[in-house]
Design a protein that fits this description.
There is one protein chain. With 185 residues, the protein is of the alpha+beta class. It has one domain. Helices cover 37% and strands 21% of the residues. The protein has a four-stranded antiparallel beta sheet with strand order 2-1-3-4. The chain starts with a helix and ends in a 13-residue tail after the last strand. The mean pLDDT is 85.
C-alpha cells in the first residue's frame, strides 16, 4: 500500500509528459504558420511581378526579343522562390478592330510566353475569352495583358495538401503607340 501512495506522490517526469503531449501541437502550429507566410509572400511577389512586367513592357514600342529579356527578370523578382520549375508567363496584346464598343471586335494581336505558358485569354488571332474583370477594349484601342502562373507546392505539408496553380494578371494601356504589332515584325 505504501508503494502505491508513494507512486502518486512522486511528480518526477510530469514536465516530460506534458512536453510530449504539447510538442506535436506546437510543431504543427509553427509549421502551418510558416507555410501560410510563405504562400502569402509568394502570392504577393507574383502580383507585383505581373504589374512590374506589364508596366515595363508598355513604356515604349518594343521588340519580341526585348520582351523576352524583360520576362527573364521575373526570376529575380521571385527570389527566394525558384521560378523555373513552376512558373510561366504570357504577355498578350488585345486590340479592338474598329471604332465600336462591341466586344466581339476584340482580337489577340500577339503573344510572348516564357516556360511554355498557355494564355487563359486564347491564341493569337482569336477573340479573347476570360478577359480580366470582363474588360472590354473600346474604340480602336489596345491593352497589354500580363499573366503570371506558378505551380505552388507546399514546403512542409507536401503529402497533405495538393499543389495549387497561382494566377495573377495585370492590364496596361501602351503609353507610346498602340503596340498592335511588335517592333521590327
Amino acid at each position: 500500500m505504501q508503494l502505491l501512495i508513494n507512486f502518486f506522490r512522486k511528480n518526477r517526469g510530469n514536465v516530460l509528459i506534458e512536453f510530449a503531449v504539447i510538442f506535436p501541437l506546437i510543431f504543427v502550429l509553427c509549421a502551418g504558420v510558416f507555410e501560410l507566410v510563405m504562400f502569402t509572400l509568394l502570392n504577393n511577389k507574383l502580383m507585383r511581378t505581373a504589374g512590374s512586367l506589364g508596366d515595363a513592357i508598355t513604356r515604349e514600342d518594343i521588340k519580341r526579343s526585348e520582351i523576352t529579356g524583360i520576362l527573364n527578370t521575373a526570376r529575380s523578382f521571385l527570389k527566394p522562390f525558384d521560378f523555373n520549375p513552376g512558373g510561366s508567363i504570357v504577355v498578350s496584346q488585345v486590340r479592338n478592330d474598329g471604332f465600336t464598343t462591341d466586344p466581339s471586335k476584340m482580337i489577340i494581336s500577339w503573344q510572348v510566353n516564357m516556360n511554355g505558358a498557355t494564355s487563359r485569354l486564347g491564341a493569337v488571332g482569336a477573340r479573347p475569352v476570360n478577359m480580366p474583370n470582363n474588360l472590354t477594349v473600346l474604340d480602336d484601342q489596345a491593352v497589354v495583358i500580363t499573366e503570371v502562373f506558378y505551380q505552388y507546392q507546399p514546403m512542409i505539408f507536401k503529402g497533405f495538401f495538393p499543389n495549387k496553380t497561382l494566377y495573377h494578371v495585370s492590364v496596361f494601356v501602351p503609353r507610346v503607340g498602340s503596340m498592335t504589332s511588335l517592333k521590327d515584325e
